[in-house]
Specification:
- 38% of the residues lie in helices and 19% in strands.
- A seven-stranded parallel beta sheet has the order 3-2-1-4-5-8-12, sandwiched between helices.
- Helix 10 packs across helix 12.
- It is of the alpha/beta class.
- The protein is globular and about 55 Å long.
- The protein has a single domain, classed as NAD(P)-binding Rossmann-like Domain (Rossmann fold, 3-Layer(aba) Sandwich), CATH 3.40.50.720.
- The longest helix is centred in the first third of the chain and has 25 residues.
Length: 383
C-alpha cells in the first residue's frame, strides 16, 4: 500500500514507518519536529539522543534496502499537507501528528494554546486534505483511552446503545477527559464522526492506552534507528519512567494512592495494531473505534512489577508515593472492552518479567545519560 505517516519522527511514528517500509509498503513520513522542539523547551530530552530524520532514513535504507520518503512540514499548514497528499496519493494515512502529552498541555497558557491549536488544526487539515485529494483513503487516527476517563460503568468499544423513554439509539460512548490534551482527542473523534457522516470518509480511531518499551524489530537493527524514549515527568509514560528510575536509583514516584488503573501495551503491539487496522479498512461512511491495549494495571501493580524484577537484578528498587500533581481518581472502577483488535488477529506481547528485565537491561546500557532532575513531577494540574 501507499502509506502516509503524519508525525513520522516520533516515539511511535518512526517505528511505524520502518515497520511498514520493511514489509514492502511505499511509505512517506511528514513531520515538523515539534516534538523535538517541545522536549528542548521543557528540558525533557529523550534518554538516547536522536539523529536527524534524513540520517535515520539513510541508515534504514542501508540496513534494509528499503526506502522511506521524508518530508519536513507542518500538518497545520493546509496547503503544504494537501500537496503532500496529492504527491503521495496515500491509500492509508496514519495520523500521529499531535502534541501527545497531558502534563505538557496543563503546564501553562502557551503550552495549552499550542496543544489546542495544533491538535485540532492538524486533524481538521487531514480531513480536508483527504476530501480534496484522496477521498478513498483510509484515515487511521491515534486516539487515547484517556478520552473515556474513569466512569463507574463498563467502557464499551467506542459506542453505546442508549434506551430512553422506550426508544433506543447508538451514540459515541460518553467522554470525560482528564487533561486538555485528552480533551483535544475527544474533539478529534467528534470532528471525524461529523465528516464521516457528512462526506462518507472511512476512519479507524484507535483508543490507545499508555505504551511502553524502546525496542522493535527495526530499531534493533542499528543504534541510529532508535526511537524517542522519554522518561521525564512530561513526556514519559509510567512504565518507561519507572524503569529508568529503577536503573537510576530513584524511588519509583507513585502518584497519590497508586490505584489509578489503565490499559497498557508494548510498542511492538502498537505497530501490530496499526498494521491490522490498515489491512482491514472499515468501508466508506464508517467510523470504526477500537480500544487499543492488551492488559490493565494499576500504578501500584506496575511499581511492584518493576521492583520485583529490578531487585532480582540487584538494583534495590524503592517505591515512594508522592503527592499527586494531577486531578484524577486514585481508586476507581475500570473495565473497558477491547475485543476488536483481538478479532482482527492481534497477538499480544504481555508485560512478563522477561520483558521487564529486557527493558531494564537496555536502559542500564544508557545509565550515565539519565538526568535525575527530569524525574520528579514539575507540572501540576492546578495551583
Amino acid at each position: 500500500m501507499r502509506i502516509l505517516i503524519l508525525g513520522g519522527d516520533g516515539y511511535l511514528g518512526w517505528p511505524t514507518a520502518m515497520h511498514f517500509a520493511a514489509r514492502g509498503h511505499e511509505v512517506t513520513v511528514m513531520d515538523n519536529y515539534l516534538r523535538r522542539r517541545m522536549a528542548l523547551e521543557k528540558d525533557s530530552e529523550p534518554l538516547v539522543p536522536l539523529v536527524p530524520m534524513p540520517e535515520r532514513v539513510r541508515r534504514f535504507e542501508a540496513e534494509t534496502g528499503k526506502r522511506i520518503r521524508a518530508v519536513v512540514g507542518d500538518c497545520c499548514d493546509h496547503e503544504h499537507l494537501l500537496q503532500v497528499v496529492r504527491d503521495s496519493a496515500p491509500e492509508v494515512i496514519v495520523h500521529y501528528a499531535e502534541q501527545p502529552s497531558g502534563p505538557y498541555s496543563m503546564s501553562d497558557y502557551r503550552s495549552a494554546r499550542l496543544t489546542l491549536e495544533n491538535n485540532l488544526g492538524a486533524t481538521f487539515n487531514v480531513i480536508w486534505a483527504v476530501m480534496e485529494a484522496a477521498p478513498d483513503c483510509h484515515i487511521v487516527k491515534l486516539g487515547t483511552m484517556g478520552e473515556y476517563g474513569t466512569p463507574n460503568i463498563d467502557i464499551e468499544e467506542g459506542w453505546i446503545d442508549v434506551t430512553h423513554k422506550g426508544r433506543t439509539q447508538k451514540f459515541l460512548y460518553p467522554r470525560q477527559a482528564g487533561s486538555l490534551y485528552h480533551t483535544t482527542k475527544v474533539l478529534d473523534t467528534d470532528l471525524l464522526w461529523f465528516y464521516v457522516r457528512m462526506h462518507g470518509l472511512q476512519v479507524t480511531d484507535l483508543m490507545q492506552g499508555p505504551v511502553y518499551g524502546l525496542s522493535t524489530e527495526e530499531t534493533d537493527l542499528h543504534e541510529e534507528l532508535a526511537t524517542s524514549f522519554s522518561y521525564d515527568d512530561i513526556f514519559g509514560t509510567v512504565v518507561n519512567r519507572f524503569v529508568v528510575q529503577a536503573v537510576a536509583g530513584v524511588p519509583l514516584t507513585v502518584y497519590g494512592k497508586g490505584g489509578q488503573t489503565r490499559g497498557y501495551l508494548h510498542i511492538r503491539d502498537t505497530l501490530q495494531c496499526i498494521e491490522l487496522a490498515a489491512n482491514s479498512p472499515p468501508g466508506k461512511g464508517q467510523l470504526r473505534i477500537l480500544n487499543q491495549f492488551t492488559e490493565p494495571f494499576s500504578v501500584n501493580q506496575l511499581a511492584e512489577r518493576v521492583k520485583t524484577v529490578g531487585d532480582r537484578m540487584g538494583l534495590k528498587v524503592q517505591v515512594q508515593p508522592v503527592e499527586n500533581p494531577r486531578k484524577e481518581a486514585e481508586d476507581h472502577y475500570y473495565n473497558p472492552a477491547h475485543s476488536g483488535l483481538l478479532e482482527l488477529g492481534l497477538q499480544p506481547h504481555y508485560l512478563t518479567d522477561e520483558v521487564m528485565a529486557s527493558m531494564l537491561e537496555q536502559v542500564l546500557r544508557h545509565r550515565d545519560a539519565i538526568d535525575r532532575r527530569k524525574i520528579l513531577p514539575r507540572v501540576r494540574w492546578s495551583s
